[in-house]
Inverse folding.
C-alpha cells in the first residue's frame, strides 16, 4: 500500500529512532533497577505509583521474573507510545502536510489506515527494544539484589513471547488513544498532556475515590493486560475491555478524520 510505505518513510527519522526506542530502553533499565533495589532492601513492594505496578518477590523469583520489568512499566511504555502516535498524527496538521496528502489521496480512510499500519510496525519495534534491554538488565540486577533466578530458564521462550505480546497489545491501545486525542486537538502537546495527566493524576484520583470504578479505567485495564491479569481484573477481562477501548478509538478516529474539514 502506497500510504503505508509513505508513512514508514516519513517516520524513518533519527528523532523517532532515538526518541521512541531510546526512551523505551531507558525506562526498561530504570524499572529493573528500581524493582530489584526494592527487593534487595527486603521491604514489601509499594502499592504501585502512577504508571508503575511493582511485582512481589515471588513473582521476581518465578519463571516470569525475567520479564517482570516489562509488565511493571506497562503504563510508562504506554505513555511513550501514546506520545509518539500523537506526534506522528498531529505533525501532519502543524506542518500543513495533511492538505497535500488529502489532495493526493481523496479516500481519507486509506491515509489513516496507512498511518496506523506504520505506527503498529514502529510500536512492535519499540516493544522489542524494551524487551531486549529488559532481558539484558534483569539478570545483573537480580544478581546484585541476591534474587534467585533458578526458575528463569523454565519456559523462557514462552515467557518472553507472552510478555512481548501483552506489552505490545497494551501499547497499541495506548497508541490509539494518542491518535484520537491528536485528531481531536490537532496538537501533539495537548494530546500528550492529556495522556500524561490522565495516568499521573486523574486516574489516581478516581481510583482513590472508588477502587471499583478504577478497575475499568484505561491505565488499570492496560496494566492488567500487560501483566497477564491481576487479582482485581482477569486477563480475559482485560483483553475484552482493551479491545473495546481500541475499537471505540478507531471508530472515533475514522469518523473525525473522514468527516472533519482539513482546514478547520
Amino acid at each position: 500500500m502506497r500510504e503505508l510505505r509513505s508513512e514508514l518513510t516519513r517516520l524513518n527519522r533519527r528523532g523517532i529512532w532515538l526518541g521512541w526506542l531510546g526512551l523505551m530502553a531507558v525506562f526498561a533499565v530504570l524499572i529493573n533497577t528500581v524493582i530489584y533495589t526494592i527487593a534487595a532492601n527486603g521491604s514489601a513492594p509499594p502499592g504501585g505509583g502512577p504508571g508503575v505496578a511493582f511485582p512481589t518477590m515471588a513473582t521476581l523469583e518465578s519463571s516470569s521474573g525475567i520479564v517482570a520489568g516489562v509488565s511493571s512499566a506497562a503504563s510508562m511504555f504506554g505513555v511513550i507510545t501514546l506520545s509518539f502516535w500523537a506526534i506522528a498524527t498531529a505533525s501532519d496538521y502543524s506542518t500543513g502536510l495533511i492538505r497535500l496528502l488529502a489532495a493526493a489521496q481523496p479516500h481519507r480512510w486509506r491515509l489513516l489506515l496507512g498511518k496506523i499500519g506504520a505506527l503498529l510496525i514502529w510500536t512492535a519495534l519499540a516493544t522489542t527494544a524494551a524487551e531486549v534491554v529488559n532481558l539484558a538488565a534483569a539478570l545483573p540486577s537480580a544478581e546484585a539484589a541476591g534474587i534467585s533466578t533458578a526458575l528463569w530458564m523454565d519456559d523462557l521462550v514462552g515467557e518472553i513471547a507472552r510478555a512481548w505480546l501483552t506489552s505490545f497489545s497494551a501499547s497499541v491501545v495506548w497508541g490509539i488513544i494518542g491518535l484520537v486525542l491528536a485528531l481531536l486537538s490537532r496538537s501533539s502537546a495537548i494530546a500528550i498532556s492529556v495522556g500524561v495527566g490522565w495516568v499521573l493524576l486523574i486516574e489516581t484520583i478516581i481510583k482513590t475515590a472508588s477502587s471499583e470504578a478504577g478497575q475499568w479505567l484505561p491505565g488499570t485495564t492496560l496494566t492488567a493486560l500487560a501483566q497477564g491479569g491481576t487479582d482485581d481484573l482477569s486477563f480475559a477481562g482485560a483483553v475484552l475491555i482493551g479491545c473495546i477501548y481500541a475499537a471505540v478509538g478507531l471508530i472515533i478516529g475514522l469518523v473525525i478524520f473522514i468527516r472533519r474539514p482539513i482546514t478547520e
